[in-house]
Each structure stands twice: as C-alpha cells, then as structure tokens.
Amino acid sequence: MDLDLSSTLAGVSASAAIPLRHRSLTSPGKAVYQGKFPLTAEFRSGPRGYKKSYEDWVEHQLMPHGHAVDLQTNVLRFEPENWEYANRFAAEHPETMVLSTWRAASGMPKGVVDGGDPLGESTISFPGHWVLSPGTTLVQGISPTSEIVQVASTTNMRRGPALLVETTNNGNTKLWDRFEYVLIQGVDDGANTVQVRREFNGSPAARVFPAGTTQLLPMPWDDRNRKPYTDWFFNLSDSCPRDGNGKTAMDTLLEDMVGPLREGGPLDLIAGIDLASGPLTVNPEFADYDLDGIVDEDAIYRNGVKTFYKRIREAIGQDGVLTTSLDYEFSEYINGVNQEGLANPDDPWEHVTRTVNNVLSWEKFAQLPVVGLAFQQHMDREETMLRVQLQRLLSGYSVCLGMAADVETGSGSEALDEIKRIELYKGDEAQPHWLGKAVSMSRPAAMTPNLLNGSNSNDKAKAWDTIVPSLGVKRGTLLVEEDELVLRPDEGDFAGYLTLDLNFELEKKSDFVVYMEAISDDDQLLRKILLPQISVDVEHDAARAEITSKDYLPLSFYVRGASAGTVTVGFRFEHGGDIRFRSLSVHKAADTL
Predict the structure, then answer these.
(1) Is 361 exposed, middle or buried (0-12, 13-18, 19+ CB in 10 A)?
(2) What is the mean pLDDT of residues 571-588?
C-alpha cells in the first residue's frame, strides 16, 4: 500500500483549494501513508458512553505495548460530549487515522435500541424518509386495538414491516404526522384482510385510522441484519419526501454523519467515514421512491447512492478517507474496503479468497489512495486454536494486501488477544511495523507447474497452444486472438450458462488453486462467476467471483483436499459478451501470499 499522494493533489494548489483540515490529513506521519506493515486497527473503538475527562477517554483507548493503533474506526455519534476528546486524541496521535463509523443503507428509527448491532439505531425519525412500496387502502376504519385490517386489495401485501398513514381525501397527500409502523403477519387474499402487529419497531402509539383515506404501505427491509424486519432502507432518491424542515433522508443523514467533520467542526481532525454493517451495494426491492404507486427502477436508487457518496466526498475533501464495501460503480469516491469477517470459522478459506480477489480487483480501479481494513468476527470460545490460526491468516493476508489488521478478537479471551498482539508486534520486542513494506503479490503457487495439459514450465499461464487442449466449452467456442484466449458465447438465447471446463490430473489428494486474469468484453459493470463445479470430492469448495468490463481482474480460486484422479473444474459465467483471458493456470499448491 505505497500511496502516492501527488496523484490525489494533482492540479490543486496546496494553499488554496484544500482546507487546512484536509491538508493535515495527508501528513506523512500517518502510518497508513508510509507503506510500513503490519498496520494495526481497532474495530468500532470505545468508549461509547460519556467520559468525564480527556484522561478518562485516553484510559479506554487500546494502546497495545504503548502504541496507538494505526487505524481506528470509532462509533462517535452516540455521545457528542466525547467529541472534543476524540478530536484531541487524533491531534495528539497524528500517526493514527481515526474514522467515524456509520451505517448508510438502512437502520431502525431514531430512539430504537438494537440489541445486536450498535449501529442499528439511525438518526431518521420522519416516516417519509424510509423506502416504501406500493400498497393499498383501508376499506374499513380501525381502532387502536384492531389487528385485522380490511383492505381494498392484497395484491401488494406481504409479510414484513409496513406503514399506516392517513392521506387527504384524494389520497395524493400524505399526512405524515398521522402514522404508525406495523408488522404484517398474515395475508388472506380471499377475505381481503391483513393481520398486523401494532406499534412495531419504535412506532408511535396505536391510533384510530379512518377508512378510505388511510394507506397501508409495505416497507422493504434489509435482511443483512440478523434480526428480521427491523432495519429499513433510507430513501436516498431525488424524490424522497421532505420533513417539516424541508430535509430529505439524505440531508438528515449527512448533517449528522459529516457535519461535525467539516473544518471548524467538533470532529474536524477525524480523517473520514467508515460505512459498515450493510453498505450501499444492495438495492431495495419493490421500491416506490416517488410514492406514485408504481415500483421504480433500481437506477433511481443507484443515482441517489452516487449523490450520497459525492456529498460525503465534498464534505470530507478529496484526501479525507471513505471506506466501505467495494462498490466498483463509484470508485472515484471510495478509498478502500472494510472487510468484516475476513477470517471466519464458518468458511475461512472462502473468506480469505474472496478478500484477496476483491482487494486486488479494487486496486485496479482505485482513483484515490487505498486504505483497507480487515476485521475478524463471529468467534466462538470453543474454537481457540482455530482462531489463533485464522488470526495468523488475517495478519499475513492483511500485510500482503496492505490492509490494517484488527488487534482485538472482540469476543475472544484476553490470552488470545495477546497472541494477536504478539503476531502483530513481533513478539517480545513489541516493535510496530516490523515487516517494513508490503510483501507485494508474489504467490508461491504461481512458481509451480501449470497443470493444464501437463505444462511444466512456470511461464505457461499464457501458452495457449498447450493450454487449450485441456479446456472444454459448453454453449460457446474458444479462439486465440494475439496473446489472449477468447471465450465466445453461442449466438441467440440458450438455456444454462456459458461454461469453461478445466481438465487436469492429480496423482494424489491435494490442494489446488486456479489463477486467471480476465475481462468481460461488453458493458457489464459486474458479471458473476457462479460457484465452480468440481468433478471430484473436495474438503472445501472454491469461492464465487466476479469479472467486469472495466479492466482485467486477477482472480484466484483455492480448493482444499481434492481427491486424486482426473479433475474437471467448470466455471459458469452469467450471460454477456466475450470473456477474454490474459492468463489461465492451475497449480497443485495452496494459495498463499
């Protein structure tokens, strides 16, 4: 992660266009800009409760071996009384990059406490700021105790959260101060009735709603939260209704999120924003952004997301930091990845593989200095030894990818936390950044023979004359154009997927890894590679992946414990144009960095 800030500041007068706050963020004293590793991070740092003094604040900061971590994400918004302490800490530790952590896509209404994710409570209280779906009208009034609602039609009704809201006589204007959140628990199409749970998820008290002028509107909900129905999408579209102060949902979110970070604000030394726990990469389903009763196209939401990113960037400056899940559609606004759960016992190898693919791909698109975070989550106390090994994976991969590795295990024991710190701080020497610069992307497996058609030379990943005999194609053809292999789909509509089969021999049970560098020769931003189909028994499948039309992406697919014999690995691609390969190889080795 050697960062060239000159490209970020190109064409900008350091004394004119960039505020003092932002110029200070490019300080060469910040570890993330020095290219030294391993970088250390603290995920959602505390304290979240009120602290009576700066000394009290500092006492609760994680300072392993007396060193401040290189990168800290901090849930600052819950206690504004602490802001002066957080800002002072950032000033006194210029080597540390502090990010304010938020959720951007969805949340619970303001004042509702989420027992799981502390970021679940949003700052949204106006009912018109949520994404709503086309709904129906009450044909019979209800009392505060009614649980069966007679409606004009059940066509748009489904289980999940919904909004009851009164309207004017013609139904065109919603009376936003007369509303209630309910949970639809059942739908009877024959009787045109809906069973609801009243006063749901922070709703105002149940009330009387009249027939004819009351609408029941389902609400798309974000299923990335482990608790169903409670996280609702923010309406980020241009058509979002405005509250009594003339603000849209985006206005409200940005005022709270980035307002304190502006120059002269109480958090003006905080480096930027970390958007975690449900980023802006999932589109709400059945969304009616302009409330005309018709489901709108996803493009309306995507345009709103672009505006949201743009406004964050305008507030934090071009050299402020914005981390989130990688969104290739808006690479000009995002610095890098927030990779939660990189090393996860449920499927650690898949998580690592996907992270490597994602981060290497992002570096192809990044237009800003790359800042990446890797966090270990979802640990069980019974898995201590496995967690130690996963932490080593986390630390090692983070070093090679130029990411900051989490210092704490979260739910882990103090002993395991100390093991992590030993790994990150060179044992008893407690020396930060002891590995120096990133190890680059040299992958030992690539130094072994390419198994396709028995190629036994290390440079055979592009020798198509020897590779093609080992390949098979379904619903397409292969051809070589100059130094590239082209997979061309059959013309016309066809059932199934364009598939490239890789055939090779394993003399004994082995791990193997497939490397490819490919591009989708069409206009698709992302084109999925489905879960590879493997003809022999394996201990661990490879991961899914994506390619794009924007550039060639380096991808790896690591398979553990494949049985001996003739192996066929089938890569199925979503429909689209040609797929062009710069390289393709299979290696009987583990995918390590």
Answers:
(1) buried
(2) 96
* DSSP conformation class of 21: H
CA torsion angle 194 200 206 211 (round to 10): -30
Asked if 46 and 78 touch (Cβ cutoff 8 Å), the reply is no
Residues 6+ apart with CB under 8 A from 479: 485, 486, 488
* 332 vs 365: CA distance, rounded Å: 8
Q: Which tokens hold the place of 194?
A: 């809906």
pLDDT of 53 reads 96
pLDDT attached to residue 440: 61
Q: Phi and psi dihedrals of 143, rounded to 5? A: -95, 175
∠ CA(67), CA(71), CA(73), 5° rounding? 120
**Whether pLDDT at 262 is above 60:** yes
Average pLDDT, rounded, for the chain: 87
Dihedral, 530, 533, 534, 538 alpha carbons, nearest 10? 60
For residue range 278-295, list pLDDT tens digits in order: 789 899 999 999 999 999
Contact 144, 129 (CB under 8 A): no
- pLDDT, tens digit, 9 for 90 and up, residues 466-489: 999 999 999 999 999 999 999 999
Give the pLDDT band (50/70/90) at residue 515. very high
Report whether 102 contacts 257 (CB < 8 A): yes
Q: Containing H/E element for 54?
A: helix 54-59
Cα 543–Cα 548–Cα 550 angle in degrees, nearest 5: 145
Instruction: Look up residue 147 and give its DSSP letter.
Output: -
Q: Write phi, then psi, for 390 (nearest 5 degrees).
A: -65, -35
Cβ neighbours, 10 Å, residue 398: 29
Contact 313/250 with Cβ under 8 angstroms?
Answer: no
State how far the Cα of 471 lies from the Cα of 481, in Å rounded to an integer.
Answer: 16
DSSP bridge partners of 179: 165
Provide CB contacts within 8 A for 339, sequence distance 6+: 355, 358, 359, 372, 373, 374, 375, 403
Instruction: Check: CB of residue 340 under 8 Å from CB of residue 351.
Output: no
Q: Which residues contact 195 (CB under 8 A, 6 or more apart)?
A: 147, 148, 149, 184, 185, 186, 187, 188
For the chain, the first-to-last Cα distance in angstroms comes to: 15
Grouping H, G, I as helix, E, B as strand and the rest as coil, residue 278 is coil
Beta strands in 456-593 (DSSP E): 471-474, 476-481, 484-489, 498-506, 510-521, 527-529, 533-534, 545-547, 553-562, 565-573, 578-587
| pTM for this prediction | 0.89
Residue 19 pLDDT > 50: no
- 514-550 burial by CB neighbour count: b if 16+ within 10 A, else e? bbbbbbbbeebeebebebbebebebebbbbebbbbeb
